[in-house]
Design a protein that fits this description.
Blueprint: H1 2-20, E1 32-35, E2 38-39, E3 48-50, E4 53-57, H2 58-64, E5 68-72, E6 77-82, E7 85-90, E8 95-98, E9 101-104, E10 110-112, E11 115-119, H3 121-126, E12 130-134, E13 139-143, H4 153-157, H5 168-174, E14 179-181, E15 184-188, E16 194-198, E17 204-206, E18 212-216, E19 223-229, E20 242-248, E21 263-267, E22 273-277, H6 278-286
């Protein structure tokens, strides 16, 4: 009787222990990451899905975006130097310091197999790049705006339309704000967004909210990026949570021969790119409710 009781106790304890094991995350071998269409290689720890969140190893993505990464094992802190600014994050914390600004991630940074991993939102909010998660292709596409991609004559003429679920930034950026006249683009940076100017040599200048800027359109004028992440739109791994607009001051970066007018690029819910001139985009933005 005692032996049977002891056996029951052991079996019960084993069952409880098994139940308490954390749920396994989805295998990550199929998740691919590109930066400006160039694949990012991960020698050991791969990107993976954890409770519908895509987490990626920080070091290799940050380095692909021009950042210098250091890890302090004593205080478990990662420091990234990128384009003249310092980004600091601590393991098991969702707080990230970007210069003097503090942002909060949806899940904290953690260490998996010796690598620090962070949610995709880190790339857009802290490192200032545009991120799209294509769940059907298991592809994380990161873009900085310095990418040459030919545009067909039909697209160059304009196929622009706003994604109905992502127009908050559009109203602030284009309605009674951004204008193009006499070969120059003028605008004031809306609050609550990431904005910067990239030269053709990838020299980045962060733009300040509330400040007015003027840029000349033409060869080697570079690219502007405006990016807004709406945390309320995070659903099922955040296939799309970022509203962004690239303004190509040098249209040749998009394969456009006419260099007299800037080109605005965004995408829709299916990640199809939409292209138009500033005048076209402004006219459509005015019609938004």
């Amino acid at each position: 009787m005692k032996k049977n009781f002891a056996l029951i106790v052991v079996v019960t304890m084993m069952a409880i222990a098994t139940t308490l094991q954390p749920a396994p995350v989805q295998a990550a071998t199929d998740i691919k990451v590109t930066v400006n269409q160039t694949p990012v290689k991960f020698p050991d720890q791969k990107p993976y899905l954890d409770h519908s969140r895509v987490l990626i190893p920080t070091r290799f993505v940050a380095q692909s975006l021009g950042g210098k990464v250091e890890y302090n094992s004593a205080n478990k802190t990662v420091t990234i130097e990128q384009s003249g600014k310092t980004i600091t994050l601590k393991i098991n914390s969702s707080k990230v310091t970007v210069g003097s600004k503090v942002i909060t991630l949806d899940v904290p940074a953690k260490v998996i197999k010796g690598r620090t991993v962070v949610p995709l939102r880190f790339v857009s909010e802290a490192m200032g790049a545009m991120v799209d998660w294509n769940q059907n292709k298991s592809l994380v596409a990161i873009t900085t705006g310095n990418i040459t991609k030919p545009i067909s004559p039909t697209t160059e003429a304009g196929n622009f339309q706003f994604d109905p679920g992502f127009t908050d930034l559009a109203k602030k950026l284009f309605v009674n704000n951004m204008k193009e006249r006499d070969g120059k683009v003028t605008f004031t940076v809306p609050s609550g967004i990431v904005a910067y100017h990239n030269t053709t040599t990838l020299k980045r200048t962060d733009l300040v909210a509330g400040k007015a800027y003027t840029y000349t359109v033409g060869k080697d004028a570079g690219t502007l990026l405006f990016n807004y992440v709406d945390s309320n739109k995070v659903k099922d791994g955040a296939q799309k949570q970022s509203e962004y607009y690239f303004v190509f001051l040098d249209p040749s970066l998009r394969g456009v021969k006419d260099l007299s007018k800037a080109i605005v690029v965004t995408d829709d819910q299916r990640l199809n790119e939409k292209v138009g001139t500033i005048a076209t985009v402004t006219a459509l933005a005015i019609q938004l409710k």
